[in-house]
Structure formats: C-alpha cells, structure tokens
Amino acid sequence: MIATTKKPKLTVPGPHSSPLFGNLIQMFKFVDDSISLSRQLFQNYGSVVSLLAEGGTNIYSPYPNCPGTVIAYGADIVREVTSQHDVFHKCPLIGILYGKQNDSPRTKPFNHILVGLFGVNGGEHRQHRQLLMPAFHRQRIESYRDEMVDIIQSELDGLQIGEIVNVVELMRRLTMRVASKTLFGEDVNQGGEELVRLLKKFGKRLGNPAIAILPFDIPGLPYHYLLDAMLELDGEMRDIIRRRTTSGVDGGDVLSMLIQAKDADSGLTLTEDELLGHVTAIFAAGHDTSTNAIAWVLFLLSQHPQVAADLLDELESVLHGEPPTVEQLQQLPLLERVVKESMRVLPSIPWNGRVASETTTLGGFEIPAGTEVFVSIYQTHHSAEIYSQPQQFNPQRWEEIEPTMYEYNPFSAGSRICIGAGFAMMEIKIVLAMLLMRYRLQLITEKPIDGKGMIVMSPRNGLPMLVYKQDRQFTQGVGGVRGNVREMVDLPQ
Ligand code: HEM
Questions:
Q1: Does the global pTM surpass 0.90?
Q2: Residues at the annotated binding site for heme?
Q3: How many angstroms is it from 421 CA to the middle of ligand 1?
Q4: Domains of the chain, earliest start first
Q5: Given ligand 1 and candidates 183, 289, 432, which is best to mutate, with the most ligand atoms within 8 Å of its CB?
Q6: Where heme is bound, by residue (predicted)?
Q7: In angstroms, rounded to a whole number, what is the distance separating the alpha carbons of residues 382 and 89?
Q8: Which residues define the annotated binding site?
Q9: Cβ 468 vs Cβ 439: under 8 Å
C-alpha cells in the first residue's frame, strides 16, 4: 500500500474546476471521452497535464489520498514511466474498488477478481510473470492455431449475405469463444456459456459509474448487484479451477499450465485466489482488446479501398482461400502493416495507467506519491514529431519507418509489456485473413462512429456493416462517416 497520510498538492499545470462538483464533472468527461478531452488539454497545457490543476480527481487509484490525475504523452514520457516500474506501479483492473474491501465477506473477491498481473509490482510481479510466461511462449501460442481456425470458421459460417452485422458484437463473441477455449479448455458453444454469461454480467455492472459514487451494499443500489454478480462469478470460476485441479488433466489450456506452474527457486505454486486473479485478468485483458483491434481494422479498410484491394491480392496469392498456417502468417507483410498501422491510428488500449509509489518527477514536473498517471498511447502515436501526417492511415509507411518501443507501443513497453501480444497478433491476423477472403463488409453510416472508452477504445454505437460475398467492390460504402473518429484519422468525405 502506498503511504500518503496527507493529500499533497499537484503542481502540474491544468484547468481549474468549477466550484460545485468540478472534480466529478471532469472525471466524468474523461471517462466518457478521454481522447477528445485529453487532446484539448495537451493543446492548451503541453505534454504533461493535470486533469485539474488543484487535483482532487481519482479514476483508477485504489489508494486513499490520491492527490489527483496526471495525463502525459510522448516517447520520453513512455520511457520514463515504463522503465521505472518500481516507481510507477500498476493497479488491479478493478480500479478504485480494489481499495473497498471491508469486513463483509461479500467484498472479499475484490482481493483477486481482475487482479492477476495488474495487481502485483516489483519482485512479486517478476515472480508471477515468470510463472505465467510458459503459457504464452511462442510454441504454446502457435498450438492454439487450430482451435482458433475452427472457432473463426464456425462464426463466419453463421454470417448471411445481405444481413447487417454489428462487427463489434461478432468479434466479441468470436474472441470470447477463442479466449474461453484456450484459457479454460471450454468452448462457449459447448458448455462454457455460464462463465461467459457471468463475466458479461459482472462487466456490465462494473461499468456503472454509480457504483463508485454510492458504494453501499443495499438492495436497490447498483453496488449491491455488482457484489452479487461478483460472488456468482467467483463461485463459478472456483468450480472450474477445482474441477481441473482434482482431475489432474492437462487440457493444453492456459489454466492447466498455471495450475502446474512452479517457481524454480522456491517451489511455490499459485494459490486458488491467485489463479482466480490471473485467469479473470487474462480473460478481461485478452478479448475486448482483440475485439476492438479487429473492428478498427475493418472500419479503416472499409474507408481505404485501395488498401483493401491490395490486401486481398496478397491474401489470395499466398493462401488461395485456405486459413493461414503459422508459417504462412510470416509471409503476409501487408497484413502485418495494416494491423500495425491500424493499432497506431486507433489503438484499442489508448492509455497506460499507473500510480506513483513515491514522490518522483515526470517530464520535469514533480509527481507526489499516490498520484495516478495516465500515459497516452493514442497521443504518442499521433505525434507529428514521430510520424509524418499522423492522422493518415498509411500502412505503407511501415516499409520505411522503424519506431522505437517508446514511440510505438500499442502493447505498452518495458517489463510490463502485454504478455498476450503474440497471441493477439496471431488471432487478429487469422480472423482478418479468413474473413476478407470470404466476405466484403460495407460500412453503414447511419450512426456516428464515436471511439469511446478509457480502458478499451470501442466504437460506442457499434460498427454495423452489410455482408457481401467477397466481390472486390471496395469503393462501395466509402465516405459519409460522422462522429469523433473523424478527429482521429483522415477519412474520405
Ligand atoms: C490487440 C490486443 C491487445 C492489446 C492492444 C493489448 C494491450 C495491452 C497493453 C497496452 C498492456 C499494458 C497495460 C499497462 O501497462 O497499463 C497490456 C497488458 C497485459 N495484457 Fe494485453 N493487449 C492485447 C491482448 C491481450 C491478450 C490476447 C492477452 C492474453 C491472452 C493479454 C493479456 C495481458 C496481460 C496479462 C497484461 C498485464 C501484463 C503485466 O502487467 O505484466 N492481452 N496489454
């Protein structure tokens, strides 16, 4: 626990709040549309900005006396934060709720649900990461290829020509199935529905801002229903873990590997609570991210017909309509560039959140202990000092540029770099290759495309697309896009 007995003052520049509920309003604005608000703040105050000059905001830090929120961007900032992991601590995905455990047994799961790697720092993080690494080794990940292909095939078989499909929902179902199969060995379509239902229910309750404002376990209040959903999820997950532990069967999935994982020096294995923390965190970190990464690629392709045509040429010439093998994935350079460029312009994780474990500096400003710091991956990727015409979706640029890991970091950088990056890239590429050879998806522009969300950036109104057999009519459906995405990427009128 970071000890801050008195709330120190922030001296990082930023806007001043209105007298009544100014901090709540600013927090709400940030959570609602962090990209637009931060763009404005960076323009007005520079690359290191306080959400409110006087502090008093707390979005993510579970520690009492958090002095406020600092947002920052740029390669130097990314380096400072990601290379000093003992100074800039990471906190559980459950955010401020992590600090709300009390004597009630109903709050006990806050200890572990969505904690995993996100909730450990320093030596403990190194130890846990080492235990998890074998499950994410290249060979292990590659062994998931066949299961991924089967699930993708079955989801694509379900698409009807002429129907309008919300691509975000389609990809969410697909990546959830892939995650539950590779993590727990349970395909959603073959009996894993209960777990996915409970995870969804819990995620929905967690997204209700009222739980932070009225955290009282009283029937009728959203916090009460969050605790109910969390206990149900906790129970279901424990059952899965116990079944797997007592059966002693290695199903080849991540959970089986984690049950067997043993620290080489101490011989320690993961406790049931730790296992629960890891699998819920990996599940949460591993499917919504990929869902939106794929959705944004499909959006950008729908508005860049020449890129879409070139990509299909590449896919067909190498794959001839068949799902890619692991080796063939290395022979698709344009696919690689399209995905990289899409994750540069519209990263599905726009921020890296941290909390200062001691008083330190960032970009030359003093950062008091306990301050929460958000580093903007999005704004770093849109920096004109690093990328010429940063708003342009131009996969070709990757033929000439080789940014450092601090300049380009959709998966973060340093010792806390995404453990699932290899898994995600393989999944995203296989989905795109199989989908694009079979179908053309034409964007429906009825509703604005608004990229929203603080943890994961997602199109708020979904991404409705009309399904065609792949007919190469890529110029259809180009243009007419409205919404805040126009401020993020250059699009045809
Ligand atoms: C396009 C897909 C993905 C993106 C963009 C992404 C991005 C990220 C980023 C930016 C971080 C660092 C967050 C921070 O430092 O604050 C991270 C961490 C993490 N990711 Fe991913 N991720 C993706 C997919 C996955 C998948 C598929 C898995 C697992 C199956 C996964 C598991 C994790 C875990 C466990 C961490 C914590 C690592 C640590 O703290 O040591 N991610 N991811």
A1: yes
A2: 418
A3: 7
A4: 22-487 (1.10.630.10)
A5: 289
A6: 418
A7: 25
A8: 418
A9: yes
